[in-house]
Amino acid sequence: MALLLSLAVLAASLPWASPAATPGTAFDNWLTATQTDYRVNQALYAKKAAGDNGTTIDESLSKAEDNKTTYVVDPKGSGDYKTINAALEAIPEGNTRRVILDLKPGEYREKIFLNLSKPYVTFKSDPLNPATIAWSDTAATVGKDGKPVGTVGSTTVAIESDYFVAYGVVFKNDAPLAKPGAKGGQAVALRVFGTKAAFYNCTIDGGQDTLYDHKGLHYFKDCVIRGSVDFIFGFGRSFYEGCKIISIVKEVAVLTAQQRTKTIEGAIESGFSFKNCSIKGESGGQIYLGRAWGDSSRVVYAFTEMSKEVVPVGWDGWSIKAPESSGIYYGEFKCSGPGSDAKKRVGWAQDLTEAQVKPFIGTHYVFGDSWILPPPTGKSAPSTKSAGGATSSAASPAESPASSPKSSATESPASSPKSAAKDSSASSPKSAAKDSSASSPKSSASYSTASSTKAASSATSEKKAL
Ligand SMILES: *[C@@H]1O[C@H](CO)[C@@H](O)[C@H](O)[C@H]1NC(C)=O
Ligand SMILES: *[C@@H]1O[C@H](CO)[C@@H](O)[C@H](O)[C@H]1NC(C)=O
Ligand SMILES: *[C@@H]1O[C@H](CO)[C@@H](O)[C@H](O)[C@H]1NC(C)=O
Ligand SMILES: *[C@@H]1O[C@H](CO)[C@@H](O)[C@H](O)[C@H]1NC(C)=O
Ligand SMILES: *[C@@H]1O[C@H](CO)[C@@H](O)[C@H](O)[C@H]1NC(C)=O
Prior knowledge:
disordered C terminus; disordered N terminus; globular; 28 strands; EC 3.1.1.11; 466 residues; 10 helices; 16-stranded mixed sheet; eight-stranded parallel sheet; alpha/beta; binds 2-acetamido-2-deoxy-beta-D-glucopyranose
C-alpha cells in the first residue's frame, strides 16, 4: 500500500522524457489509477519460485505427460463439452495428468479462471482456424458485490495453476478501448499467475493492460500481442521469442511495465526478455519499450526489429526518481529497424555486450530445461470415450527423469548501468544466427523419456556456453 501511495504522490512529477508525449494531469492520474488495484500473493510466489534450479525435467511433469488425456470441446455440441468452463470443471482437484482440451474452432464467449488446484492443462487449437476466447470486462465493470472488479477481475482468461500450455488460441478482451484519461479502462485478456506456462502461436489481444504476465516462469513463442498502455506487465520471469508485438493506438503506447522489485517477495527474480521479436504501431503513434513499475524493473530486447514508432529515448523511468542509480535494468542487443537507434536512448539504458545478454536470450532464462515441451501441434488421437467423458491416449510407463549434475542457472546482471556514451555500431542484427542453438525449445523437447540424458547434457553445455 505504501508503494501505491508513493506512486500516486510521485505521479505529478512523472519524468516523461519526450516532449511529444505531453501528458496532462488527467493522463497522469489515469496512469496512476492503472496501478492501484493489483493484488499479489507473496507467499505463493515464494513457494513456486523455489524449484530445483531448473536443471532437470520436473518429475511430476514427466509423470503427467506420460498419462495424457484429451477432452474435446466444441461449442457446436459434437465434443465432450460445449464450453471450456464445463471441461475445466470436469478436471479433478489435485489433477496429476496432462489434460488436453482440444478446442474446436469458433468463439468461446467465456470468462475463465483456472484454479491452482488443476495443473497440467493444455488449451490446444489450430492457429489457422483458432478458438477465440473472448470477454469484455474492464476494471470499472461492476461485480456481483456491487464494486468495480478491478484490473485482476477484468481478466478474460486467468491461469493460476502450473504447467499450463496453450497452442494456437486467441485470448481476447474486446472491451472498447479506454480513452487516455479515462478511469478503469484496464482490460486484461490473459493473466498468468501459475509458473512454468508456455504459449505457442497464440494471440493475446486487447488494449490497456492486455497481458498480465503476473508471476512465475513463462515462455511465449511465436505469439502476437496487441495492446496500448502497459500492455505486457507484471513480475513474471518470461522469455518472449519470435513474437509480434503491436501497438494499436495512435497516441502513446507503453509496451512493458515490468514490476521487478525488492518489495515483493520473489519478484526480484523476475524480468521480461524478448528475442527475435518485432515491434510496430499499426496506427502510428509512439511506443515506449518500457517504463518502470518496479524499482528494479528489468527488460531486455535482443535481435528485435523496432519500427519507427519506437521513440528515440526508448524507455521511461515512470516514478523512479533517479533511474540511473536505481535497480532498473533495461537493455538492448543487436536490434534492428528505425526504432532501434541507440544514440538517443536514455542514458541509463544499456547497449548490452554479448556476455551481458547471454543469460537472457535462451529458454535457460526461464529454466526451460525443467519444463518446456514441444508445442502440442499434432492431431489428437482418435477418441474412445472413457468413463469420465474424456478420451485417453496410450500411457507409456513413466521413467524418472535423469538427475543431471546441477549447476545453478544464475543470471548475471551487470548491475551498474553504463554511461550515456553508446556504441551505436553494436545495434546491427548481424550475428543473430550464433545463439540460435541456445534458444530453441528443442533441447527440452528431447525431454521424452528415452533421451533424458541428452537433455541433461545439453542443459550442461548451455550453461557452459554462458
Ligand atoms: C539452487 O541454486 C542455489 C544457488 O546457486 C543453491 O544454493 C541451491 O543449493 C540449489 N538447489 C538445488 C536443489 O540444486
Ligand atoms: C493416469 O491418471 C488416471 C486418472 O488420474 C489414474 O487413475 C491412473 O492411475 C493414471 N495412470 C498412470 C499410469 O499413472
Ligand atoms: C480454488 O479451489 C479451491 C478448492 O476448491 C478453493 O478452496 C479456492 O477458493 C479456489 N481458489 C480461488 C481463487 O477461487
Ligand atoms: C507458428 O508460428 C510461426 C511463426 O509465425 C510459424 O512459422 C509456424 O508455422 C506456426 N506454426 C503453426 C503450426 O502454425
Ligand atoms: C525469428 O523469428 C521468425 C518468426 O517470427 C523465424 O522465422 C526465424 O527463424 C527466427 N530467427 C531466429 C534466429 O530465431
